[in-house]
Amino acid sequence: MADLKPAASQLISANALWTGQAVFLTRDGTWSTDPAQAALSTSAEDSLHLLEMAKASNARAEVELVHLAAATLREDGRPWPTRNREYIRALGPTVRRDLGYQAATARAD
Amino acid sequence: MERLDLRKLTGAHLKPYRQMDDDAPMPEEGAVLVSLERLTAESETLLAHNYPVGLLVPGQAKAADLAPWLDKVALIAIRFEKFSDGRGFSLAHRLRDEQGFGGEIRATGHLIADHAEFLLRSGVTSVELSDPLAVDHFIKRLKLYSLWYQDTLDARPTILELRHGRTRKRLAS
Amino acid sequence: MYRYDDYDQTIVRQRINDFRDAVERRLSGHLSEEEFKLIRQMNGVYLQLHAYMLRVAVPYGSLDSRQMHKLAHIARTYDKGYGHFTTRQNIQYNWPALRDMPDILEELAAVDMHAIQTSGNLIRNVTADPYAGAAAEELADPRPYAELIRQWSTLHPEFSFLPRKFKIAVNASATDRAAVKFHDIGLQLKNDPQQGRGFSVVVGGGMGRTPFVGPILRDFVPEAQILTYLEAVLRSYNELGRRDNAFKARIKILVHELGKEAFSEMVEQEFARLLPTADDLPTVELARIRSQFITPTFDQLPDQDADYEQALKTDDAFAHWVAVNVVPHKQPGYAIANISLKPYGGIPGDISADQMDLVADLAQTVGHDEIRATHAQNLVLPHVRKRDLYTVWQALDKAGLATANLDRASDIIACPGLDYCVLANARSIPIAQEISKRFAAKGREDLIGELKIKISGCINACGHHHAGHIGILGVDRKGEEMYQLTLGGSGAEDASIGQITGRGFDEAGIVDAVDTVVDTYLGQRKTDETFLETYRRLGPAPFKEALYGTA
Ligand code: HEM
Ligand code: SF4
Questions:
Q1: Predicted confidence (pLDDT) per residue in B84-131, tens digit
Q2: For residues C504 and C427, is the Cβ–Cβ distance under 8 A?
Q3: Pick the CATH number of B2-146 from 3.40.190.10, 3.30.200.20, 3.10.20.600, 3.20.20.70
Q4: A24, A34 contact by CB (below 8 A)
Q5: Among residues B76, C59, C265, C323, which is most buried (max CB within 10 A)?
Q6: B65 part of contact set with chain C, CB < 8 Å
Q7: pLDDT (tens digit per residue) in C205-229
Q8: What InterPro entries does UniProt report for this protein, alphabetically (chain A) (predicted)?
């Protein structure tokens, strides 16, 4: 996977060190397991600023594999990753709809 | 910089060595570490000093190239450029096993506690570490392991020796 | 089966405590992410897309029922109720949390298992023929050698920070079921009229970005000297392997760049230096290990069993499974039963905790307590009395484990791909599922015969696509998952690397393409010719024409 350059319309993702779960950086610098709660960057500078917060969290040994992910706003105005890989991270394996974050929604359906 | 003797688990008795750049003037006193290039070029003056001279080499150095100096230097320091680069282990092994070097081998550079036991069993006798906490981590590791399978270069018994109640050939002779 | 003594146990326990300590050092910030990554990997812990992954070693693919029950227990307690058998005879859990890892390792240690060296740049889990101890034509059981190498390579002081990972396989039959020519070192057991038992040593095979069928570096190394020879190879590699580029760091590149002769000369020089002081303790140890691998006390049976013959006549589905999945055993009245982990449309290699328990129970009751994992991501009950085969099959069938497709089109090897893997370019599992469904629906697997389809989700080639009769490689083309097709590879004794057919296909297109290739084969083959034989006779041209037209 090639690392993205900071740009507008990105979110920051990582894996929680203690559990390994995919997590997404919110505007206040905390991590959420829901990409819809993530901060969507407004510019390259904004992405850099978010990345700095994420790296500080990595330095505090809270998360690993900090990286940028391309995203857009969904119809409900919430951010959502666009690339395959991040899309799958946001949901869970496409071959096991009963596992990962998608499992909760699948049950609710 | 802290020093630790991997067998005695203390560094109090170990001499500090000053790392000398190739063009730096030699100090009046104190032990120094020089590169192979400098030692080769200035051996007469360097070895005429009455303070200890050690050889500082990177992990990829060839043991055979160091052979002419092994009975002249006080210590060999092997520098680990990166913690994941394991060439220094093979160099230490060769210095002991191929060249018969019996003096101190000190590891320096990017070391982590996870190296500790491996260094000792490859023939390294001491390490130079950045801080006291790192020393604690090294000591903890060294105390953790009491057994190993391989015939390695320290005289401690291997599992095969313990299992079969025999001493390995190398030590017996 | 090999049982740990107190020494083996102590090593594993000490390593667990050490791993606990490393986790603490990471949490308190004394290990950087990069440093911790290498250390956790040495202990079998990866970080994937959704969670950590723990790869548990199944040395030389051998398990007993106690161990299999434990794997089921771990899947239930710490994971999501399943595990995934890999192409290196290991099992992976896809969802464990780091905080549970030391406890899982303790559970494993209780049944003589561990995750040591299932990842990282060191000597990995040693693999061997899954039919070891049962195969009719084997020279000797390869597992004692593999166990000797496991011990020698475990926490090796000098070879734990190699340029790249290092994989060793041992095979002892004329048929290569361990893919020795695709390993960093492949050991093929042989008898020499003068020197007795020893190995021909393949060095520098591998898959990945630059696949190589490994050359034979030495035609014969006596068994008493094998660890010394391995030491000479490993030391040469540790000193000279490239460390500037991870893609060029495997020993295959070193052997290729230096040339086999030059590399061999260096190894010979080091080997000659080591031999005079080499100890005979490993030979003594080999005898001890061997005494633990004594073949089970087989019943003295006639080779034919009336009830079994009767069941074959009356139950077609059973007879079909026997014809496809059961192979001859060296002991009269016994058979080797392959358990497919490739149900039609299923996920290759996945197995639920309940299924694990069932396999364990079968092994315990009617299988001399032995189970094997294969590099094709299947399981084996290596010692089953023919008279028990019907009961075994019925139990497997009820649990969805009786798919009769060994080495058939739907017995597909697939890596986890983009559904789990951080490095993936494309998904592999859904492609395997669609191809499997397609062939199942057409009901012509038996007509096609032996066909090995292998799928990787990126060029690292964990799914062995280079060695597939039909290989599929996932690539990313501007955010789209695309698939390249290769034909004519083989991972067996006639090893070869598949050739790319031409431009790639999308998700639906690749399934059609495989179908087209198979149709072409069926149209062109001579009587009894396998796919690979037909391809080797005709070359790629007719297949390319069928795929892309003659334009
Ligand atoms: C999901 C996490 C995994 C990661 C991150 C991973 C990573 C890699 C990488 C980077 C390579 C290339 C190494 C090289 O050429 O130097 C590789 C090769 C390989 N992996 Fe994996 N892998 C994973 C899962 C698997 C699985 C599930 C299997 C078995 C089904 C597997 C079996 C292999 C094999 C057989 C090779 C080829 C070895 C060779 O090049 O000789 N890996 N893997
Ligand atoms: S081949 Fe690539 S995608 Fe598949 S498991 Fe290996 S690294 Fe991951």
A1: 999 999 999 999 999 999 999 999 999 999 999 999 999 999 999 988
A2: no
A3: 3.20.20.70
A4: yes
A5: B76
A6: no
A7: 999 889 899 999 999 999 999 999 9
A8: DUF2849
On the question of pLDDT at B154 being above 80, the answer is no
Q: What residue has token string 């590791």?
A: B141
Q: Which chains pack against A, by 3+ Cβ pairs within 8 A? A: C
- Burial profile C205-232: b = 16 or more Cβ within 10 angstroms, e = fewer: bbbbebbbbbbebbeebbbbbbbbbbbb
**Do C150 and C131 contact (CB within 8 A), yes or no?**
no
CATH of C306-398, one of 3.30.559.30, 3.90.480.20, 3.30.70.100, 3.30.470.20: 3.90.480.20
Q: What single letter denotes the amino acid at residue A17? A: L
CATH of C6-109, one of 3.90.480.20, 3.40.50.720, 3.30.420.10, 3.30.465.10: 3.90.480.20
What is the token pair recorded at C132?
Answer: 């070891």
Phi/psi at A60 (5° precision): -85, 10
Size of interface A-C (CB pairs under 8 A): 76
What six digits make up the tokens of C481? Answer: 């998952």
- Ligand positioned closest to the Cα atom of C120: 1
Rounded Cα distance between A41 and A49, Å, is 9
What is the homologous superfamily of the domain C413-548 according to CATH?
Sulfite Reductase Hemoprotein, domain 1 (3.30.413.10)
Tell me the chain C residues in contact with residue B149 when contact means C-beta distances shorter than 8 Å. 11, 151-152, 154-155
- Report, as an integer, the average pLDDT of C359-387: 96
Question: Would you say residue C551 has pLDDT above 60?
Answer: no
From residue B41, alpha-carbon distances to A24, B38, B136, C194 in Å are 58, 5, 39, 53
Residue pair C231/C274 in contact (Cβ under 8 Å)? The answer is: yes
Determine if ligand 1 sits within 6 Å of the CB of residue C44.
no
Task: Quote the distance between the C-alpha of residue C514 and its chain's center.
Answer: 24
Q: Nearest-CA neighbor of C178 among C282, C87, C104?
A: C87
Q: Is the pLDDT at C31 greater than 60, yes or no?
A: yes
Write down the pLDDT at residue C463: 94
Pocket of ligand 1 contains residue C87 by CB under 6 Å: yes
Q: In the structure, what pLDDT confidence band is assigned to residue C131 with cuts at 50, 70 and 90?
A: very high
Structure tokens at C256: 């290729």
| Residue C250 banded pLDDT, cuts 50, 70, 90 | very high
Contact criterion met (CB < 8 Å) for C47 and A64: yes
In sequence order, the 6+-apart residues with CB closer than 8 A to the CB of C441 are none
- What residue spans define the domains of chain C? 6-109, 142-292, 306-398, 413-548
- What is the reported pTM? 0.93
Question: What confidence score (pLDDT) does residue A106 get?
Answer: 58
Tally of CA atoms within 13 A in the half-sphere of A4 that contains its CB: 21
The domain ranges of chain B are 2-146
B-contacting chains (≥3 CB pairs under 8 Å): C
Segment C39-58 shows an average pLDDT of 95
The pLDDT of C247-253, averaged and rounded, is: 93
Distance C417 CA to ligand 2 centre (A): 5
pLDDT tens per residue, range C133-155:
898 788 999 999 999 999 999 99
How far apart are the CA of C349 and the nearest CA of chain A, in angstroms?
Answer: 13
Contacting residues of B for C152, CB less than 8 Å apart? 149-150
Q: Which residues of chain A have pLDDT under 50?
A: 1, 108-109
The residue to which tokens 């970005």 are assigned? C209
CA-nearest of C226, C22, C275 to A17 is C22
- C142-292 fold: Sulfite Reductase Hemoprotein; domain 1 (3.30.413)
Q: What is the predicted pLDDT for the residue at C550? A: 67
Ligand 2, pocket residues at CB < 6 Å: C 415-417, 421, 423-424, 456-458, 460-463
